[in-house]
Amino acid sequence: MRDVFYTLITLVVLWSPFAACLNHTGWLRRVSQTPFPEVRMRHMRHSGLSTEQFIWPLKKEAVVEGDLLLGGLMMVHSREDTQFTCGPIMAQGGIQTVETMLYTLDQINKQWTKFKIGALILDDCDKDTYGLEMAIDFIKGQF
Questions:
Q1: The organism sits in which domain of life (predicted)?
Q2: For the chain, which residues make up each domain, given as ranges?
């Protein structure tokens, strides 16, 4: 029990800078200010366009609110040759790791009622240099 408590204290100390990055709605300040508009989705449904004809916005992060935030760097999208874009979603590895982390957080949060564990999951698009930059930002608490 003592080791578990020490681990939780260590996690709180390590990940507490992330809590300061959240604004009053629980979203990170640096998250894109242009979420997918519902009006476009409704227009798409009523105009007869299928979702395959629509280009979905690229989401590079998933945020789960909580008292304690864990960080995760995942390879959700495959590598692309250009510097600023990602390739298609990696069906066999990328999205499954994110779903596994989210499921685990749900199971833990169902059992613990005193505080909630959240997460900041970022997509590094299978790029080593981009992942390294994100890891350094995690350590510095700049996200």
A1: Eukaryota
A2: 2-140
